[in-house]
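Q: How would the structure tokens look for this protein?
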Amino acid sequence: MPLYEYHCDDCQADFTLLQSLSTNKDETTCEHCGSSAVKPQLSSCVGKVQGVPRKGVKPATADDYPDKEIFKLPRPRHISEY
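A: Here is the predicted structure in token form.
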């Protein structure tokens, strides 16, 4: 399941949710204040490109992410666990 980032217009909070593709995003509410005045944010993504890695470029680590709370999200369950 993908991660979606939102911004709440009422309490100005930014938060990340683990939602399935079939979830109606219009029904998403703020996890801080419960408001429905949330807007999806453009998230960064990672891709793998074939080729030779550039010299001097180190792999990304958890310290490179601005929002370290994202690592505290629950792990997605496998279909067999439902």
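DSSP finds no helices and three strands in the chain.

The two ends are 14 Å apart (CA to CA).

Upvote if useful.
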